[in-house]
Write a structure and sequence with these properties.
Binding site for NADPH (chains A, B): 105
Radius of gyration of chain A: 24 Å
CATH architecture of the largest domain in chain A: 2-Layer Sandwich
Strand content of chain A: 25-35%
Pathway (chains A, B): Amino-acid biosynthesis; L-methionine biosynthesis via de novo pathway; L-homoserine from L-aspartate: step 3/3; Amino-acid biosynthesis; L-threonine biosynthesis; L-threonine from L-aspartate: step 3/5
Structural class of chain A: alpha/beta
Pfam family, one (chains A, B): ACT
CATH topology of the largest domain in chain A: Dihydrodipicolinate Reductase, domain 2
Family (chains A, B): Belongs to the homoserine dehydrogenase family.
Distance between the termini of chain A: 49 Å
CATH superfamily of the largest domain in chain A: Dihydrodipicolinate Reductase, domain 2
Helix content of chain A: 25-40%
GO molecular function (chains A, B): homoserine dehydrogenase activity; NADP binding
Number of domains of chain A: 3
Oligomer: homodimer
Shape of chain A: elongated
Number of strands of chain A: 17
Mean pLDDT of chain A: 95
Number of helices of chain A: 15
C-alpha cells in the first residue's frame, strides 16, 4: 500500500522526537500500521535547521502555510506550540482536508472547540495524545479504554517541572526558589517558568481531560488555578507528619451540582501510588464507576516520549484514513452532537478536606478561639499539631487537618481567624484529597 | 442509527458485569458509541439464572450455539472461560460472521493463533481487552498507544490472587498456606487455586502481551512458569533487608538472542512504583525505546472491571463494524502477514540477578567454599547477609544477591553448593529484576 505522507510544521524538540523515532522504528511501525509513514515536507525559516533534522531528501519550505496546503501531504504535524500561528496553521490544514496531529495543549484548551468543529465539518481528524502527559497514552485510555464508564473524577500529576521541584523540596528540604534554580540548570524549567510553576500548563491538560471524561465542551475559563511558587518547605514537612505528600494536581470531578476543574498543590496520603510519583514523571489517576481507580504513569515530556504519542496518533489516523468519519473515535470521546452543558463549579463550591497552618502567639485561649470559629462555620477538625514555642518570637505553628468542608466556609473562617490579634501573618490553606 | 445487538454466552460473574454496566451507563455509552448496544440473546442451561441476569424482555436459549448462529446478533460475548466449549463456540460465531469479544485468556493463550486466523479470513474482529489485567486498558495501550515503540520488555503483576497472598505474607508474616486460606475465605482464591498460585493464569496473560509487544505468534508452550506455593515468608523478610519486595511477575523481554517469556516470584527494588502495588490490584510496566517506562494500574478482576473492558471492546467493534477490515487495529498489534518468528529463549538462557538462600552448618571454610564455587561459574556477589547461628541446630542462613549472571551457570553452581556437606537442605533461588 502507498505510504502516508506527513508534513511537519516546526523543527524543535517535538519535531526531532517524531522524526528520529519514525526513522529508527520505521520497520516496526510499518508492520503495525500496514503501510509506511513518510515525512514529505518540513517547514523552517532556517533551512539548515530543517536539514539537520530530516537530511536532504525531504522538501523544505519556509512558510508553514505551504505545509498546510501541500498537495502530497495527508497528515500535518503541528509542533510549534503556543496560540499563533499554530491556530491559523491548524485551521488552514483542516480547510485543505488534511488530518492534524498536535501536542499543543495551550492551543486546544483555548481554541479546541473551534478546531474540533472545523475538523468535524471537514471530515478530518485532529489527534492530540501528546498534548496531555507526554508519552502516556492517557487520552486513548480515557476516550476508548474506559468508554464503558461513567467517569467520577480524574487527578493527575501532569506537569513534570513542578513535580521535579516538589520532589526536590521534599527530599532535600529546599525552598521553592532553590529547587526552581536547579530545575532550570538541568533544563527541566524554562527561563520564564511561569506557565509551569503557576499551574497554567497543568490547567490546560486537565481542561482537556475534563471534556473527554464528562462529555462537555472544552472550558478553560472555568479552571481555578493555583501554582506552587508560594508553597513553603515547612508545609511539605508538616504534611509529612500527618502521613501526606504534597503534589501539584490537576483535578476534575463530577458532583451532583456540576463539574469541578482545578489545579492546586494538594495533600495526598503517602500510601497512594500517585503520591510516590517523583521527579519529572507524570501520572494520571482516573476513577470510573465500573472499573474503579486506574492509574497511568510515564514520562510527561521530552522529545521521544512526546514523539511516541504523536506517532501513535499518526498510526491511528493512517488506519482510518480512507474510512468514513463515522467509524472514527470522536474527538472529545462523546459524539459531537451528544455533548452536554453541565455547569462548571466555582472553587468556592468545592467540598474537600483542608490543611490550615496558622502562626500564633503563645497565649491562653488562642486555640479555643480558633476552634470556635471553625465550629461556627461547620468545619470539624480531624487532626491537629502544635509546634514548640519559638524562644525568640514566642510564636508557634498550629496545623489543622479538617474533615470534608465547603471551600467558601473555610475561606470565611480563615478571614475571621486572621482577624484575631493572636494570629500573626498569613494563614496557609491547602486542599487535601484522599483519592480513595 | 440502529442499535448493535449482542449475544452473551454464559451467565456468570463476567456476564453480570457486562449486563449491569451496559444497563446502568446506557445513555453515556450511546453518547460515546454513536448508537445503542443492546443484549438480544443470552444462553443458559438454567433459565432462571438468565432471567435473573437480563430480565424477561431478552431472548433466552439453552444452547450456546444458538447464540453463535443467531441472525440478529452482530457481536457475541464469550464469558464462559476455559478451553471448551469456548473454542468451538468462538469458531462457530466467527464462521457465522459474528464479531467476538472475550475475557478468556486461557483460550487465547492456547488457541489464539487458530482463532485470529479464522477471524482474519472471515473479516471479523476478536477483541480481548478483558483477557489481560481486567479493567486496565493495557491491551489497547500496548497495541495502539505505544505503537511507535520498539518494546523492550514488559513486567506485570497480572494475577490478583497471588498478589493478595504475597501482600498478606509480607504485611502479616504469614505462611503461604495461611494467606491462601484467608484469600479463599474472602473469595479471592478458588477452592482449587492451582491455576492462580502456580502461575498458569499469569503465564496465559504474559504470553498474549508478549505476542502483542514483539509481533510474534502466540506461544504459550515457550513460557517458563513458577508459582508462589513454595515461597517462604523467610525469603520475603530477607528480601526486605536488601530493600526488595517479592512479587509474582509475568516477564517478557526482547534480547539479542530471542524472547524471554517467564512467570516467577521476583525481587523488585521497593522504590519502584510496581513494588508498591498491593492486595488484589494489578499493574503492568511496559518499557518502550521511545517512551521509556510506562505503568498501567487498576483492578485485575471482578464483575464490573472486567465488564468495563468487555464493553470498551464492544464500543470499538461497534465503531468499525461497517468499515473495511483493513481499517481495524490488527489482533496482535502487527499486521497478520508481518508477524516474525523470533526464537523463544529457554529459562536457562536468562540473564538476570539472583537471590540465593543457603542453610549451612556453622563451620570454618563454609563461606570460602561457596564463594569459590560462585566465582568458578562467573557469578559475582553484590551483597551478602549471614544470620546468627541457631543455638539448637547450629545452623545459619547465608543470603546472597548476585550481579547479573546466566541462569544455567547459577543452576550449575547451586548443584555444586548443594553437594557440599556443610550445606543442609535445599538452596532457595529467586530472580531479581531492577526494572529501571
Amino acid at each position: 500500500m502507498k505510504s502516508i505522507k506527513i508534513g511537519i510544521a516546526g523543527t524543535g524538540v517535538v519535531a526531532s522526537g517524531v522524526v528520529n523515532v519514525l526513522k529508527r522504528n520505521q520497520e516496526e511501525i510499518t508492520r503495525r500500521a500496514g503501510r509506511g509513514i513518510e515525512v514529505a515536507v518540513v517547514s523552517s525559516r532556517t533551512r539548515s535547521k530543517a536539514e539537520a533534522l530530516v537530511g536532504t531528501g525531504v522538501e523544505i519550505v519556509d512558510d508553514i502555510m505551504a505545509v498546510a496546503r501541500h498537495p502530497d501531504v495527508d497528515i500535518v504535524v503541528e509542533t510549534m506550540g503556543g496560540y499563533e500561528p499554530a491556530r491559523t496553521f491548524v485551521l488552514e490544514a483542516i480547510a485543505n482536508g488534511k488530518h492534524v496531529v498536535t501536542a499543543n495543549k495551550a492551543l486546544l484548551a483555548e481554541h479546541g472547540n473551534e478546531i474540533f468543529k472545523a475538523a468535524q465539518d471537514k471530515g478530518v481528524t485532529v489527534a492530540f495524545e501528546a498534548a496531555v502527559a507526554g508519552g502516556i497514552p492517557v487520552i486513548k485510555s480515557l476516550r476508548e479504554g474506559l468508554s464503558a464508564n461513567r467517569i467520577e473524577w480524574i487527578a493527575g500529576i501532569i506537569n513534570g517541572t513542578t513535580n521535579f521541584i516538589l520532589t526536590q523540596m521534599r527530599e532535600k528540604g529546599w525552598t521553592f526558589d532553590a529547587a526552581l534554580k536547579v530545575a532550570q540548570e538541568l533544563g527541566y524549567a524554562e527561563a520564564d517558568p511561569t506557565f509551569d510553576v503557576e499551574g497554567v500548563d497543568a490547567a490546560h491538560k486537565i481542561t482537556l481531560m475534563s471534556a473527554l471524561a464528562f462529555g462537555v465542551p472544552i472550558n478553560f475559563k472555568a479552571a481555578s488555578i493555583e501554582g506552587i511558587s508560594k508553597l513553603a518547605a515547612t508545609d511539605i514537612a508538616y504534611a509529612e507528619k500527618f502521613g501526606y505528600r504534597i503534589k501539584l494536581l490537576g483535578i476534575t470531578k463530577r458532583t451532583p451540582d456540576g463539574i469541578e476543574l482545578r489545579v492546586h498543590p494538594t495533600l495526598i496520603p503517602e500510601s497512594r501510588l500517585i503520591a510516590n510519583v517523583n521527579g519529572v514523571m507524570n501520572a494520571v489517576l482516573v476513577k470510573g464507576d465500573a472499573v474503579g481507580a486506574t492509574l497511568y504513569y510515564g514520562a510527561g515530556a521530552g522529545a521521544e516520549p512526546t514523539g511516541s504519542s504523536v506517532i501513535a496518533d499518526l498510526i491511528d489516523v493512517t488506519r482510518t484514513i480512507t474510512a468514513d468519519p463515522e467509524h472514527r473515535v470522536p474527538h472529545l470521546a462523546f459524539q459531537p452532537d451528544a455533548l452536554e452543558n453541565i455547569p462548571m463549579l466555582p472553587l468556592s463550591a468545592v467540598k474537600t478536606r483542608y490543611y490550615l497552618r496558622l502562626t500564633v502567639q503563645d497565649r491562653t485561649g488562642v486555640l479555643a478561639n480558633i476552634t470556635r470559629i471553625l465550629a461556627d462555620h461547620d468545619i470539624s477538625v480531624d487532626a491537629m499539631l502544635q509546634t514548640e514555642v519559638d524562644d525568640t518570637t514566642k510564636q508557634t505553628h498550629i496545623v489543622i487537618m479538617t474533615h470534608i468542608s465547603l471551600e467558601s466556609s473555610v475561606d470565611a473562617a480563615v478571614q475571621q481567624i486572621k482577624a484575631l490579634d493572636t494570629v500573626t501573618g498569613d494563614v496557609v490553606k491547602l486542599r487535601v484529597e484522599e483519592l480513595g
